[in-house]
Amino acid sequence: MTVWNQVVEVLRESIFAYAQLNNGNLGVGILAVSFLARMALFPLTLRLARLAQIHQDRVRRIQPELDALRARFRNDPRRLAEETQRVFTREHLSLVPLSGLLGGIVQTPVLLALFSAVSQAAAVGGRFLWIGNIARPDVFVAFVVTALTVGSLAAIPQSAGQNRTLMMWLPAIVTMIALSKMAAGIGLYWGVSSAVSVVQTLIVRHHRPVPATVC
Do residues 155 and 201 lie in contact, with contact meaning Cβ atoms separated by under 8 Å? Predict the structure, then answer.
C-alpha cells in the first residue's frame, strides 16, 4: 500500500469512527473530520492569506506607476515587461508570491486525500438531517455551499483591475453546477472548507498585518 493510500485510509477510517460515535451517521463523521483537517491546516492557510494580503497592499500602492507604464509602453510589450519587472524588483516584490505557491504545494496533497476519503465514505450513503441519502446530490446543500463561496469571495478586498463580478460569480456558478451533480456528502466537506475560508478572510481583514517584505 502506498503512502497516499495509507493517508486516504486513515482519513476514511476516521470518518467511520466519528460516525460510529454518532449512531453510525456518516454525515456527522464527514463534518467532524473535514473540520479537524481544516483546523490542522488553519495556521498555515491563515499565514499565507496574511502574506498574500501584504503583497496585494504593496502592489496596490504602486498601481498608479504600473498603470502609467502600461499607457506609456502599450505598443511595446517587451519594454513594458522589462519596466514592470524593474518596478517590482525595486520594491522587493515578485510578480507571483512564492509563499503562495509553496503553501499550495503543501496543502494540495492533504486536501486531495481528504476529498478522496470523503468521496469513498459518502458513497456508502445514509441519512443526515434533511438529506435522504448523502450518496446523492442535494440541491439545498449545493445552494448553501454556493452562498458560502460567494460570501468568502465578497469578503476579499478587490485588487485594482479585477472584475469583481467575474471573480465572485464565476466560481459560484461552477460550485453550484459541480455540487448539483456530486454526492451531498462531498457538499458537506465543501461547505466546511468554504465556512473556514470565510472566517479566515474576516480575520485577515480585521487584523491587517504590518507590511513586510514578501517573496
Answer: yes
